[in-house]
Amino acid sequence: MLWVILALAAYFLLAIVEFIDKRILSSPAISALPYAFYANLLVSFSLIFWPLDFSWLPPLIIVFALVGGITFFAGTYFLYGAIIKGEVSRVISIVGGISPILIFLFSIVFLEEKFRAHSLIALLFLITGSVSLSFTKNGKKFMFGKHFFLLSFLAAFFFAASYGLTKAVFLKTSFLNGFIWIRVGTLLCVIFVFLMPRLRKVILESSRGFSSRLTALFFIDKGISAIAHIILNYAIKLGSVAIVSALQAVEYAFIFLLALGLSFFCPRIFYESLAPKHVIPKIIGIALVSFGVAFLFIGGA
User: In this predicted model, what pLDDT tens digit does every residue of 221-241 receive, in sequence order?
Assistant: First the structure.
């Protein structure tokens, strides 16, 4: 049960992070690649804690850890690209709807995870709620937001791969050792990107767009993000990676409420439509997600 509470706490923090990301990424001088580069570079500083719990892993598990870190970098890149192009709430709902399905299949096929009846019902409610939240109404037809669906889908795919591999690593080692090995993969990806002349030029040119105010906001944002991801990874270590991923739908509830408030003060950056045709599917989605969380608590996760 602890891992469910930890996941909910992590997603609350990540909801705040996504909004700060949207504020920073609203600057025309900042693009997805440099932002993902610096964000993952900061994450890599967690390597300083490795001496506290270092041990070698079997070669295959090391590969899982490195690829898990690389796919996490890719996931953040596509997520930031999607946030630039669309509503934060819909981006997160698309990612939260697709990623758990992929992780669920991964868990059954590769991790041989067994799900009890109440967990399957909760998973169904959480995924259905996320899908409902990702729809927007255009005339008489419901459709996905076409401008950023591809980026959101790619973010979901790479996050699913990263979280699935993360769970596989945690099954073979301690939390801290596994977490740091995965961050090695992230650091290798950061180094590779910086060594590419064209990408390095984009990163360095974009860094000039960071004012002192945005830089301070960035460090605050990534500090909160680091805490959230440590908590989220520990939840994955303790519980079902599929359900932890599906609980991302709860993040939408926090984002939707924040968006409603902030859209009055910064509508250009945090716009959230209040038209009934847009709000009703979101309310239905939140209700479904709430049922899913309730089933987890009733069944004792």
Answer: 999 999 999 999 999 999 999
